[in-house]
Specification:
Length: 204
């Protein structure tokens, strides 16, 4: 299961947003005005505020996270550290149950891969080369920072029911933390199918 811990957020973010929103027309704005400006699609004001998370997830999800290029990443190094845990999605357990493979057998397979990785390092193989033994399911960690606009645009894409299950779990965790820390911006109902403009989606 992925983890997301909010470790930093712009202090007094609403005051900053109100100051930014007041610039175009030289008029003071209220919290309510900020909400209306954002809902009308003028998202550039959100770029003045930032939030950083300590994230743990699979390398598989990391590959998808980095497609959101407006986020910034500092990731655990495969050259200077070692990996010990594999993230196992529910779908694999469900598949194993469907074809009558024991959970113990699955876990033994992953443990064998991790053991081979550690054994190769113990025998002198460089960590950066031993990392090639690791599956995409291996757990990694990182700090991810984004401005409010980057998070605002990230969440609908990764909380969508078409997203990968592990990534949905991570996005939900991030959204929950943001909604608690900045409810004026992130505690809203913009994440739902009725507002989605994805024409190819069949969930509607």
């Amino acid at each position: 299961m992925p983890k997301a811990e909010l470790i930093s957020i712009t202090p007094d973010y609403m005051e900053l947003l109100k100051t930014a929103c007041s610039q175009p027309y030289g008029k003071d704005v209220t919290d309510k005005s900020v909400k209306k400006i954002i809902e009308s699609g003028h998202l550039s004001v959100l770029e003045h505020c930032y939030a950083s998370f300590l994230v743990k997830c699979s390398v598989r999800v990391l590959g998808q996270l980095t497609r959101h290029r407006h986020l910034s990443f500092t990731v655990k190094s495969a050259r200077g550290s070692q990996f010990n845990k594999v993230v196992v999605p529910k779908g694999i357990y469900e598949f194993a149950d469907k074809i009558n493979i024991g959970v113990e057998d699955l876990e033994a397979s992953w443990n064998s891969v991790i053991d081979s990785y550690h054994d190769s390092i113990a025998y002198g193989l460089a960590e950066q080369d031993a990392a090639y033994f690791l599956p995409q399911g291996v757990e990694t960690s990182m700090v991810v920072t984004g401005n409010f606009r980057a998070w605002y645009e990230y969440l609908p894409k990764r909380e969508c029911r078409r997203a990968m299950p592990e990534h949905i779990e991570l996005a939900v965790l991030i959204h929950q933390e943001l909604a608690k820390a900045a409810p004026e911006i992130f505690d809203r109902t913009f994440l739902n199918c009725s507002n989605c403009i994805e024409s190819s989606c069949d969930f509607k």
